[in-house]
Structure prediction request, 116 residues.
Amino acid sequence: MSDKKYTYLIEEIEKLKFHNRTLLTLLGNLNPDALENTTIHEAVILFDLSKNDLRELKDLIIHYDRNRFVFEQKALMINPVLSTDNLLFLVKSFVNSEMLTAIGNTILTDYEVKAN
Prediction:
């Protein structure tokens, strides 16, 4: 692939990402109550996660062993955007999407209990 084609594709991808974020922002402004319980689909757009990032995050959540430090470190290895706050936001998004509800709630409970 030539550099020109590659550059063009990157620019088109960036336009699409911008469009998705703008659309999500617009929907949030029109109906702020709808974004109180962000779904995993909305969170993926918000954090610009790839399909592979999402798969790895899902596997990390499924195999959560109640060790918060390891959980956070593995999340950062998936994508540096997955800080503790962002990670918990994504876990909540899984729960809101009715995916991984039991393990997601366990993770959230572990953080609530240890945060106090």
About this structure: The mean pLDDT is 81. Residues 47 and 81 are 7 Å apart (CA to CA).
